[in-house]
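Batch 3, record 17
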Amino acid sequence: MLQLKQLGISTGGEKGQEPLFPEVSLTVQDGQILVIMGPSGCGKSTLLAAIAGNLAPPFQMTGTIHLGDTALEQLPAQQRKVGLLYQDDLLFPHMNVLQNLAFALPASLDRKQRAQRIAQALSHADLQGFQHRDISTLSGGERARISLLRTLLAEPRAILLDEPFNKLDKTLREQFRDWVFSELRRYRIPTILVTHDADDCGDNEIYDLVKGE
Amino acid sequence: MSRLRQMFSLFPWLTAVLFILPVLIGVTGTWLPAFGYLPDIGATAFSISPWQQMLDYPGAGSALRISLLTAWGAAVLSLLISCALLAYSWNSRGLRWLRRSLPALLGVPHAAFAIGMVALLAPAGWIMKLLSPWATGLESPAFFSLVNDSHGFSLLLILTLKELPFVLFMGLAALSQMPVERTLHVCRSLGYSDAAAWWRVLIPQLLPRLRLPIFAVLAYGLSVVDMALIVGPNTPPSFAVLIDRLFNHPDISMRLPGSAGATLLLLLTSGSLLLWYLLERGSLLWIARRASAGQRGRLHHPFSRFMSLFSWSLPMVTIAAFIVLVLWSFSFRWSFPDALPSSYSVQFWLRGWEQLHQPLWLTLITGMASAFIGMVLVVACLEHEVTLRRRRGSIKARINLLWLIYIPLITPQISFLFGIQQVLLQINAWGNWLSLVWIHLVFVIPYLFLSLSGPYRSFDDRYLRQASSLSGSEWRALWQVKWPMLLKPLLYVAALGFAVSVSQYLATLYIGAGRLPTVTTETVAIASGGDRRLIGVYSLFQWLLPLLIYSCALLIPYLCFRQRKAMQ
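Prediction for the assembled complex:
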């Protein structure tokens, strides 16, 4: 469960600290997908940066973030176990598919275990045999799926999606979105999706960042 | 297509002819004498004896070793240090300050920088004076020297310090096209430290983009003469200096082994570039394999503090070199181990002005002419790219052009300057100011293109289209809208072109025939044995000239647009 309590983000302005949006208090249960909506520039991505541990000056955060029993505010980003997915897949071009996915796995696994885990993940995403493919030869949909697989292989305890469907065409967008939602529910990971497109909401709960409800 | 656009379409060809042709002619003009053919000295029979003569020349083997060590060492170190600065101090204040200092560091002429470093590091240099006798116990200069050592380590060090800003600048320019922050966020979410993310993910993506700049550093390191004369070993010297000595030998038949040496240097450079490419590919494969093993790296690496300190120290070293030259130039008496001169005088400035005012004037007009002509050519080429993009959205022409642009930078100067000199002699254009400007253009144009292409290509073409439709004239739209909006980068890049022209040593010597002395040729000439106070004055003239032009380049847009917040 991901809990935000009176989370506020402010930035130094001419009149001192100016809050970006009303304080956020919300809970996202395991397997739940919460959609956060708001107009461009209202602070949606900044909110995700705060949860992930990537908030940089001049932004400042108040309030608390809990993932299960763990308080995240004082933890560095690397220790929060919060997965991130952006609209750019950010697959690493100097690595093939296997290496991109293996990058997410812990160092404690041996080569055989890594290969098995990756083969299972690819099979589940209908990408069998893609291990040694060059990233540049993949289609947009394939890249998007591998990007999510990489995030999931790291076994995050929560996932943040920052407009991940933006760059996909309409048909691909619907297919990918449905697949992402089904995978996240299957893994029972609390998820926050930021979007400005109402079509992405599905039947998920919506939080309006500007109104604060 | 409008007449203006038709005119622009001619410029890529014109530019290619102007700056690639001399390289091709020059290389050919050097190859022929390498095989015994130089009719001007009566050598008309093809032969490989010049190669034998060159290889048998005393010190040739050691000279080759010194050049390979210093060039490869400087290239590897400048790349490693640049990567370490990025990996360990990306968001530090030190790196932010270094980034702001880069334009100033890039503009420092090589010879002036080398002389400044000698003034710091020599046995009676400022560092030893500041540390003596309280730390060193020395009451007189030490017998050992940190410069002109016989292995070339001082040349390697100073070359590294000079090339590091260039490699870092090109690296930062490449990084501005990559999603650095988002990549770091994703790597952090997967548990990786920032340093691990840099070494395993970002730097492998950066390396191919840095290939051409590193090629330029390698080629320069192999062929540099002015810095080698100032801080390099003397007996034997570096290979490029040896070749230069052969070309200027009183026995004119030594031009033949000199040409063989220049051709060998070209082959060595080509081989080095190929080897670097292969090592780069191998390294990327190795890094990709290691990265997928999952080692996350330490969150707080001990190197971070060290690299952050280093990023402060690089500009400080350059400032210290500048200050010591100023002290030298105004000193009348400065004995060891006094930290400061004991008496001052302006007489060396007066003497320096008397001796240098004509070379200064020549340097100024040559630099302005090279920068101006270069800018016209490069801007016209970039405008032609706009036409291509409008027509077919193609970037293929851009990619092909990039390799062409780098040709003068990756070809050792000494491997083609002699050939050009021979051709100019034949057509009575040797020692002619126009020839000098032309040869400077060969080196100025690549830097202009590399520096201007980013800002020019990212200019929103809709402004120009809008302005053209409103004014009815594309020419007016360029003059009144696009170029004023790009005034800051245009002037800055022109200043960079001027600085590149000022720095030209070998090109000026070979094409100027000794009749066109510039502040750089005079400074290098005096550096090896002149009065250090006069050396200080000469170096400062060489340093201050580009600094003055840079200051104008910064001031003019500020004055023009001080009422326009959007233009700041």
